Known about the structure:
The complex is a heterodimer. By secondary structure, chain A is an all-alpha fold. Chain A has two domains: about 1-65; about 70-330, MetI-like (MetI-like fold), CATH 1.10.3720.
Amino acid sequence: xxxQIQLDINNTNLGAEGRRSRPSVxxxxxxxxxxxxxxxxxTLLPMVLIATVTIILVVRSWxxxxxxxxxxxxxxxxxxxxxxxxxxxxxxxxxxWVTIAxxxxxVPPCLFTALYLSEYSHSFTRSIAKPxxxxxxxxxxxxxxxxxxxxxxxxxxxxxxxxxxRWFSFIPIFAVTQPTGFSIxxxxxxxxxxxxxxxxxxxxxxxxxxxxxLRHASLAVGATQxxxxxxxxxxxxxxxxxxxxxxxxxxxxxxTMAVLMVxxxxxxxxxxxxxxxxxLPALIANNYGDMMSIPLYDxxxxxxxxxxxxxxxxxxxxxxxxxxxxxxxxxx
Amino acid sequence: xxxxxxxxxxxxxxxxxxxxxxxFLIVAGCxxxxxxxxxxxxxxxxxxxxxxxxxxxxxxxxxxxxxxxxILGSLYLAGGGTLLALIFSLPIALYLETYLGxxxxxxxxxxxxxxLWGIPTIVYGVFGFIIMLAIGxxxxxxxxxxxxxxxxxxxxxxxxxEVIRRMPADLEQAALALGSTKLEVAVRIxxxxxxxxxxxxxxxxxxxxxxxxxxVLFTAGYTDRIPSSLMQPTASLPLAVFFxxxxxxxxxxxxxxxSALILTIIVLIISxxxxxxxxxxxxxxxx
Lengths: 332, 287
């Protein structure tokens, strides 16, 4: 009651001066408290969501996790859902190979590009590099897939495979075993381009955290720029570089559409980079939704999603913690 | 002896610098190669019919029609998803800045957002499908919007957060010193300061949402009609590209490339547009 009167007086006073009436301090504080609580609840949402997704996937893939031994499930290499055989090994190996190929191809040029942008280039080059990276990051996965289909698969088929057949066929992992370009390496190339903007921008941010004075000191005693980079800059940023690469690897692991379109989707354990593979995300995308009649099939595909999720969560949390520490307030 | 060493390290310097420039050119060249490939292959089949008509009978066998259903479907999906994500992102971003700041809790929330960002969209798609089955919802525009908003949420919050954190601290302190509550600081000062950031974040999230196929694959369905309510299934451009390429007919595949070109053009417009808009609006913020 008292409060009400207070508020009214307040309003009249302000009204008399011809200004917009304002709520009292009490009311403003109450609004503030209310907003704080509401915002707090909304802010819990991301954490709740991560927990919910994980728990639901565990619960739904539980039937298959108890029906088969982990050895049969994760190391078994036969995938025949209609016969009750669920061996994830070909898919796990396929995922692993495509990701490794993508990361290995992406890392050297990306690190050099980040170093170039951070240490050598003029501000003009930097100003054109930013939009280029933004555009690369903005291109949808399915467009990368179309590019892979039109450019990379023929390139592998007509250029890389014959080249490897001629010169490297004695090395088992470079053996050409099939006539098409739909292969691990095609998936790897497409992935490499997709994760490039992420690696470059994160490594660039980390390189900027090295104090300029250190560089100046090194240059002042006569080191060349590359000596400075190698002996002063790089030792300070190695953990961050590793974290950036792990982060990119986790992005690559979960990439579905682009890889699915170029990797061949043959359920076999790939032995060479020219073999077709079948990564886990492609397995889910191709089969989930129309497997309801076969017992445990649904649980098996959710188990595939769970494997992906857990590996990615681990990679992500570790790399993010390192980057948060290294970048401090700049981590965004 | 001295002379030789001097020469050697300078040769290495030049070599490494060359290597770095080549790397940069390779990365830039990839962007060029992608855009060129899509343009060259998509352009011949890009007719007026493609963007103004819905698929007619036998479209996937090579008969007439276009992908208007997918273009509109994608705009609805990404638009709805972005709106829903914005409703949740804004409070989170404001709470992070005004109430949490750089505290321990702030770090956990940012970590959780980054982890959420890293979860593959196919997992969101599967998760969405499980929830849909549980509550008895069929593949529909609504389900697609909800799942896309999950995909877009972390992108949006982190993009806003990045801008808010660059805001000068004095501004907020000045407002607090004059007796504002934190809510008033958030609504009257922070939101105004971060307007360019909000718009960039919205466009960034929209661009991500419109291009994602794996999350809407199970949740939004696919249809040749334009959805007239939230409960109807809807087509989307990425899936239109994917399905058309999956047919054995060259003419339909051609149209798949054209659909990819349409999608690329939309995404490029958004990306360039967000840059222009934020550059323009940035003039009105306090530096």
